[in-house]
Amino acid sequence: MTTTDDRVSEALRSLERQGRQRVRDDMRTRYGIVTPKAFGVPMSAIQQLAKRLGRDHDLAAALWATGWYEARLLAAYVDDPAQVTAAQMDRWVRDFDNWGVCDTLCFCLFDRTSHAWRKVDQWGRRRDEFVKRAAFALLASLALHDKRADDAPFLRALPLIERGASDERNFVRKGVSWALRAVGRRSRTLHQASQELARRLAESPDSAPRWVGKDAYRELASPKVRRAVTRGKARA
């Protein structure tokens, strides 16, 4: 009988075989992903491995515990959102040490859990750089993926975005901009409210909110996004 430990060992061997120095170098120099344990495996190969492994909550936890960058990305695809607890999300988010892990977990797993909205609010008030980024990466992921939600929770999240925009740390402010742009593409109402916030931030005398505002406004005011919002296809 194959155990979870056996499956972890097999997955790590597969990742190691596919690791490339060029990918590791690109992670650091091109994408700003700095992590102490990485094989250098392309995302497409990680996704293919995840399909072969299938959903397995215990396997995901064991993969996460290895500390390997690619194993943690793999855990995002392997874990079962229905079995992910709020405590697990808090444990894992404390381990985030780069934006690649942060965004992948939020975009592929955490936003599918029943705890997602509560974590947006909780993490958005934290000081830790990648915990705070996770709040906005999670909000952006909800805006992009939750087709059933109405405008109300996203309107309520705009003050959190406005407060987060004052954070000068690069990874946080980019997460804030991503959230604002994603929310603004959901509907006409959210597009108007997000544009107004972006315009206000862009006029700030402080550099961080000014950058967020200009970055978000540039996309939200573009003809392409305006047309998409009018047609109701902005989230595609």
How would you explain this protein's 3D organization?
With 236 residues, the chain is an all-alpha fold. The chain folds into two domains: 1-79, no CATH class; 99-236, Serine Threonine Protein Phosphatase 5, Tetratricopeptide repeat (Alpha Horseshoe), CATH 1.25.40. It is 70% helix and 0% strand. Helix 8 packs antiparallel against helix 9 and helix 10 packs parallel to helix 12 (188-202).
Profile the largest sheet. none
Helix/sheet category: mainly alpha
Q: If you compute it from the alpha carbons, what radius of gyration comes out, rounded to the nearest whole angstrom?
A: 19 Å
Uncertain stretches: none
Integer average pLDDT: 96
From the 3D coordinates, which CATH architecture of the largest domain would you assign?
A: Alpha Horseshoe
Distance between the termini: 43 Å
Instruction: Give the beta-strand count.
Output: 0
Please tell me what the overall shape is: globular
Number of helices: 14
The CATH class designation of the largest domain is Mainly Alpha
